[in-house]
């Protein structure tokens, strides 16, 4: 101990605490100057060839952030020692394109600046770039996240909203992550893109109640079309429907306009326009896309730094699907 002069200890202490607090959009400016352009090129190529990528990535991102924070814990694969987050029993059926985009970007980045860029930063930046590419708002992503050291299927339950939950339960989950009701309604506007598998809403289509086979809250023509699309969903679990039936691939405020017309796909979507706590915000965003974009951008910026790990609380993974010490 005596061999370390006091000023060096002080310097070490200062540099650790600085690196822990210093998150910035320019984080990789010196260490990986090509970060922005590599991300943009990877995303553009993938989204053009596979238009489901934007929604897939956004969904993987929110699942990452709501369980253990935005630390790429969702990207880790299970092994014989560890059943990882992405394989939770709640079967999230997380979309493969959301994982693939991170692998592609990581591969390109490791060639340009090996060992520098975290998987958590890649996922956060990819999500922002993809939202913008499909017409959504831009927001700054502060960088410098480390990749988490924990990924456990057992930590998933209770952290994610499900389509069959009551509004009370859904509000509680978002509140536990620091989001108020208006922020929650803005975030759920993400359902303006992407799709849902039939099993997530089939109880609204078949054998709904004693008096009605289908949820009477659905627009009747929409319900008929969904019944047809999901007719064989038990035999073919890949069957799915667009979350926003009118403009499925465009990030806009159509999701909110759909809800009062009975065009909300999931029970939780429809609940947003029924519940008096959320309805005013649905109405605001349905009539004012600028207000939606502004609030969505703010909420995403907040989501992007949820419980992030910095300094020694994480690492920069060599491979996004594996901890660097694979025995942990
Ligand atoms: C009330 C809260 C929410 C519930 C109950 C919910 C539930 C769901 C369900 C069941 C699906 C379909 C998954 C599948 O069948 O594969 C889905 C898809 C999706 N969710 Fe949510 N979600 C909620 C909030 C959010 C939020 C806050 C975001 C992002 C900010 C989000 C982004 C997405 C996206 C982008 C998709 C489409 C995925 C794809 O096309 O691959 N969701 N959601
Ligand atoms: C969960 O979903 C994935 C992807 O759709 C599927 O391959 C896997 O078999 C499912 N796991 C369980 C336990 O249902
Ligand atoms: C929601 O559905 C899942 C299965 O899809 C079930 O395990 C769970 O108990 C249901 N939750 C509620 C609140 O009904
Ligand atoms: C609806 O209920 C009937 C009677 O309980 C059953 O025979 C039928 O298979 C159910 N249909 C679906 C699509 O679940
Ligand atoms: C829409 O929302 C924006 C942003 O909050 C606001 O500045 C604008 O005045 C609103 N427009 C209308 C027509 O209310």
From TrEMBL:
<keyword id="KW-0964">Secreted</keyword>
<feature type="binding site">
    <location>
        <position position="244"/>
    </location>
    <ligand>
        <name>Ca(2+) 2</name>
    </ligand>
</feature>
<feature type="domain" description="Plant heme peroxidase family profile">
    <location>
        <begin position="22"/>
        <end position="324"/>
    </location>
</feature>
<comment type="similarity">
    <text>Belongs to the peroxidase family. Ascorbate peroxidase subfamily.</text>
</comment>
<dbReference type="GO" id="GO:0140825">
    <property type="term" value="F:lactoperoxidase activity"/>
</dbReference>
<feature type="binding site">
    <location>
        <position position="192"/>
    </location>
    <ligand>
        <name>Ca(2+) 2</name>
    </ligand>
</feature>
<dbReference type="GO" id="GO:0042744">
    <property type="term" value="P:hydrogen peroxide catabolic process"/>
</dbReference>
<feature type="binding site">
    <location>
        <position position="64"/>
    </location>
    <ligand>
        <name>Ca(2+) 1</name>
    </ligand>
</feature>
<keyword id="KW-0575">Peroxidase</keyword>
<dbReference type="GO" id="GO:0046872">
    <property type="term" value="F:metal ion binding"/>
</dbReference>
<keyword id="KW-0732">Signal</keyword>
<dbReference type="GO" id="GO:0006979">
    <property type="term" value="P:response to oxidative stress"/>
</dbReference>
<dbReference type="GO" id="GO:0005576">
    <property type="term" value="C:extracellular region"/>
</dbReference>
<dbReference type="InterPro" id="IPR010255">
    <property type="entry name" value="Haem_peroxidase_sf"/>
</dbReference>
<dbReference type="InterPro" id="IPR033905">
    <property type="entry name" value="Secretory_peroxidase"/>
</dbReference>
<comment type="function">
    <text>Removal of H(2)O(2), oxidation of toxic reductants, biosynthesis and degradation of lignin, suberization, auxin catabolism, response to environmental stresses such as wounding, pathogen attack and oxidative stress. These functions might be dependent on each isozyme/isoform in each plant tissue.</text>
</comment>
<keyword id="KW-0408">Iron</keyword>
<feature type="binding site">
    <location>
        <position position="85"/>
    </location>
    <ligand>
        <name>Ca(2+) 1</name>
    </ligand>
</feature>
<keyword id="KW-0560">Oxidoreductase</keyword>
<protein>
    <recommendedName>
        <fullName>Peroxidase</fullName>
        <ecNumber>1.11.1.7</ecNumber>
    </recommendedName>
</protein>
<feature type="binding site">
    <location>
        <position position="73"/>
    </location>
    <ligand>
        <name>Ca(2+) 1</name>
    </ligand>
</feature>
<feature type="binding site">
    <location>
        <position position="71"/>
    </location>
    <ligand>
        <name>Ca(2+) 1</name>
    </ligand>
</feature>
<keyword id="KW-1015">Disulfide bond</keyword>
<dbReference type="InterPro" id="IPR000823">
    <property type="entry name" value="Peroxidase_pln"/>
</dbReference>
<keyword id="KW-0349">Heme</keyword>
<comment type="similarity">
    <text>Belongs to the peroxidase family. Classical plant (class III) peroxidase subfamily.</text>
</comment>
<feature type="disulfide bond">
    <location>
        <begin position="65"/>
        <end position="70"/>
    </location>
</feature>
<feature type="binding site">
    <location>
        <position position="247"/>
    </location>
    <ligand>
        <name>Ca(2+) 2</name>
    </ligand>
</feature>
<feature type="site" description="Transition state stabilizer">
    <location>
        <position position="59"/>
    </location>
</feature>
<feature type="binding site">
    <location>
        <position position="67"/>
    </location>
    <ligand>
        <name>Ca(2+) 1</name>
    </ligand>
</feature>
<dbReference type="Pfam" id="PF00141">
    <property type="entry name" value="peroxidase"/>
</dbReference>
<keyword id="KW-0106">Calcium</keyword>
<feature type="binding site">
    <location>
        <position position="252"/>
    </location>
    <ligand>
        <name>Ca(2+) 2</name>
    </ligand>
</feature>
<dbReference type="InterPro" id="IPR002016">
    <property type="entry name" value="Haem_peroxidase"/>
</dbReference>
<feature type="disulfide bond">
    <location>
        <begin position="32"/>
        <end position="113"/>
    </location>
</feature>
<dbReference type="InterPro" id="IPR019793">
    <property type="entry name" value="Peroxidases_heam-ligand_BS"/>
</dbReference>
<dbReference type="GO" id="GO:0020037">
    <property type="term" value="F:heme binding"/>
</dbReference>
<feature type="disulfide bond">
    <location>
        <begin position="119"/>
        <end position="320"/>
    </location>
</feature>
<feature type="signal peptide">
    <location>
        <begin position="1"/>
        <end position="21"/>
    </location>
</feature>
<feature type="binding site">
    <location>
        <position position="69"/>
    </location>
    <ligand>
        <name>Ca(2+) 1</name>
    </ligand>
</feature>
<feature type="disulfide bond">
    <location>
        <begin position="198"/>
        <end position="230"/>
    </location>
</feature>
<keyword id="KW-0376">Hydrogen peroxide</keyword>
